[in-house]
Design goal:
The complex is a heterodimer of chains A (about 425) and B (about 325). Chain A contains 15 helices and 18 strands. By secondary structure, chain A is of the alpha/beta class. Chain B contains 12 helices and 9 strands. Classes of the chains: A alpha/beta (about 425), B alpha/beta (about 325). At the A-B interface, helix 6 of A face helix 5 of B.
């Protein structure tokens, strides 16, 4: 099966390519990348006029809730949401019920994902049962298919355990993904601590709750020479700490999520529990610092932290509702609208964060458009507007603060492993 | 302005200064009525008020009950023990049940901030906030404002001190908003653990010394100190709190002679204020309670679309 993608603007951050090129896909591989590829007999053709042709997008931080909460989302269901949203690879976090802390469960995810449209790379727990007490069998987990380790959803509170995890994982050269939060300092906070939490009478989570643990983990990465990747960076202070750590030669990378460069804690008064997540939405100063961190490259990755919660759980008093919002469907539109259109990012600057950078951090054979590479391609029309509504959101759960927003950036086609897994109707 | 053109009364922030004045003017009418032999009027006849309390309260609930009864409303009470919140019916389902019973007004007290705002987005009945978490207690602020207005005629230019646990106080937040809208200068006083700097967003001053502040105040509002805050190390002991921030007889001597002393109740004698302070003519704690009923009647009346009331007609026969 051959497919030629014609008339598109190919953006490949891995090579810095930004050119009008055609792409020939044969079976599960990219065969050719050049101008004016002839369409042979029996070949399919995609006309990508006015569109960006990108390496298939990679979201290194999603929660698909399976096993345990299949009512909220499943591996296959989540994979279909991802495909519709332009993603050909996702990494599922380990905080399911039971948590992904043994090889059988890693294999279960891989097997389940084979029935879905895209590639799923499991992240396994750092500690057994996510209890933060003993490190998991990392070697066995990697053999089964885990690509990194994280107790995401909760921090690793013990400094010595974090040190051991960073040390032990060195022999596999995989990163420890840190949910950076000082739970004691968070106390019972539910939104950013600041003017808005004061006005709303809601308990605050100071930025320092995140920054203290990022500082600690950076120093532990220095001590252990392990690889640290900081999840969902939300404050300007965190960006500064990571910048310094990188300059000092510490092996640290980090990610932020689209909501941290798109919204501030001003959204809480109106959106209530739909704007409740951890870490919380911060201030405008923080939002601008996150954008600057992305621009300068201190922040390596954009990941969605896609966290479905049922409407029943979210339609409660703000204090009782769970933390988390969905992020897959709105990721591309927010990147195009906020980073490219509002903040002048080049397509390469914007999309390296969600293609080659996560691929390199996790050593995935993904994120590039070149002859011989796996045929994962995402085609986006950056000028076509989308309306975030019930129909646009294909997740089982529609917990998002972006409902009703009109944004630029429409996913037109998603091609995974040579198969067209999504076409905009 | 003829009446409150709004469905709900959720917080002071969303009220205009005119609306606050309107509520206070009509409250005067209802208060005057209290001295009469017949203290009720048929303003809410045929309407149903439900008090929905997710947090224990005696005085606020009694005050709302009495206000509703004096307006001839049908009244039902719904108390939900906090412990059943987790396993019990959700707030939304509870309120849909009330709505199915065709309740017109829901007076809600809830331990979770913003719960009435969440509710108001999902229900047709009027929601009156009787206190949510640390966020707002608008009827308390309106009765506090009314009580000062009654004594001084105007709040413009008065220097009002609010003393105590500001951080965890919905009364403080609503009072600050109401007093600022009416033109007062407001200073917050307490230890930094209980008076966070973020409160400066309201345009208030912050003082850590009651002794420095007291001689300048026209009004002092003493907040109830919750003993359990000590456990979070927000202050070391009630003894030290009393020493620094209680209104003692000795401190009272350094106040302006006409200072108004307020407290939202219930008072902790010997913690926020000394016994002898309670009985001073400057202290209007009991009048605040009386005014609370009048202000809540005024709020029900105006939310029902009532026209402004200025003067009580002469009592017949």
């Amino acid at each position: 099966m051959k497919i030629v993608i014609k008339n598109g603007r190919v953006i490949d951050p891995a090579t810095g390519t930004d050119a009008m090129l055609d792409v020939l896909i044969e079976d599960d591989r990219i065969r050719q990348l050049s101008a004016g590829i002839k369409v042979g007999e029996g070949s399919g053709v995609i006309d990508a006029s006015g569109c960006l042709v990108l390496p298939g997008l990679i979201d290194m931080h999603v929660h698909f809730r399976e096993p345990g909460r299949e009512d909220v989302e499943t591996i296959i269901g989540g994979s279909m949401v991802a495909a519709r949203s332009g993603f050909t690879s996702v990494c599922t976090m380990a905080n399911t019920t039971p948590p992904i802390d043994n090889q059988a469960l890693v294999r279960f995810i891989k097997l389940e994902a084979e029935k879905g449209p895209i590639s799923v790379f499991p992240i396994a727990a750092v500690t057994k049962g996510l209890q933060g007490e003993e490190i998991s069998e990392m070697g066995e987990l990697i053999n089964a298919g885990a690509v990194a380790f994280s107790d995401d959803g909760r921090p690793i509170s013990s400094s010595i355990l974090m040190r051991r995890a960073l040390e032990y994982s060195r022999m596999f050269d995989v990163p420890i993904l840190s949910h950076a939060e000082d739970l004691e300092l968070t106390d019972e906070g539910i939104m950013n601590e600041g003017f808005n939490s004061t006005l709303l009478g809601l308990k605050g989570i100071p930025g320092e709750s995140e920054e203290i643990i990022i500082s600690r983990d950076s120093l532990l990465a220095r001590l252990s020479k392990g690889r640290l990747h900081v999840c969902h960076v939300s404050t300007g202070g965190s960006v500064g700490i990571i910048r310094n750590a990188k300059q000092a030669g510490i092996r640290v990378t980090c990610e932020t999520a689209p909501h941290y460069f798109s919204l501030t804690d001003d959204a809480v008064a109106d959106q209530l529990s739909m704007a409740k997540m951890k870490p919380p939405l911060r201030t405008e100063t923080d939002r601008l610092a996150i954008i600057e961190g992305l621009k300068s490259g201190v922040i390596d990755v954009i990941a969605t932290d896609h966290a479905p919660h049922s409407l029943n759980e979210k339609m409660q008093e703000l204090e009782y509702a769970p933390f988390g919002i969905i992020g897959l469907e709105t990721a591309v539109p927010l990147i195009i609208t906020v980073l490219v259109k509002d903040n002048g990012f080049s397509y390469i600057e914007a999309f390296e964060k969600i293609t080659i950078n996560p691929a390199r951090i996790l050593k995935l054979p993904k994120g590039e458009i070149k002859a011989g590479a796996e045929a994962d391609i995402t085609i986006i029309n950056p000028e076509r507007k989308v309306l975030v509504d019930e129909e646009f959101l294909v997740s089982k759960c529609k917990n998002t603060p972006f409902m009703g927003r009109e944004l630029y950036g429409s996913v037109e086609y998603t091609i995974s492993n040579g198969n067209i897994v999504y076409t905009r109707k | 302005m003829n009446s409150l053109k709004r469905k709900d009364l959720l917080d002071i922030q969303s009220l205009s200064t005119e609306e606050i004045n309107l509520i206070c003017r009509s409250a005067k009418y209802f208060k005057d009525m209290f001295t009469r032999s017949v203290k009720s009027v048929p303003v809410l006849r045929g309407k149903t008020v439900c008090t929905l309390f997710y947090e224990p309260s005696t005085r606020t609930r009694l005050s709302f009950d009495l206000a509703a009864k004096r307006l001839s409303a049908d009244l039902i009470n719904f108390t939900v023990s906090t412990s059943s919140v987790v396993k019990g019916e959700s707030l939304i389902d509870t309120v849909h049940t009330l709505e199915a019973m065709k309740v017109d007004y829901i007076v809600m007290r809830h331990a979770a901030s913003m719960a009435p705002h969440f509710l108001s987005k999902n229900i047709n009945a009027s929601v009156i906030n009787a206190g949510d978490g640390f966020h707002a207690h608008p009827t308390q602020a309106l009765l506090d404002a009314y009580s000062i207005l009654e004594k001084r005629g105007s709040i413009e230019g008065l220097h009002i001190g609010i003393v105590g646990d500001i951080r965890h106080s919905r009364v403080a937040r609503s009072d600050i908003e109401a007093f600022k809208k009416l033109g007062a200068k407001v200073t917050l006083c307490g230890p930094p653990t209980l008076v966070p700097d973020e409160f400066r967003i309201y345009g208030v001053d912050i003082s850590y010394s009651l002794d420095d502040l007291l001689p300048h105040l026209d009004v002092i509002n003493l907040l109830r100190m919750q003993k359990e805050r000590q456990r979070g190390s927000l202050f070391p002991s009630l003894r030290e709190y009393h020493k620094n921030f209680a209104l003692t007889v000795e401190r009272f001597r350094r106040c302006r002679p006409d200072i108004i002393i307020m407290h939202p109740g219930p008072i902790n004698r010997g913690i926020e204020l000394d016994n002898a302070i309670v009985d001073l003519p400057n202290t209007i704690i009991n009048e605040q309670v009386t005014n609370g009923v009048a202000v809540r009647m005024s709020i029900f009346y105006l939310l029902a679309g009532g026209a402004p009331l200025e003067n009580l007609p002469e009592e017949q026969g």
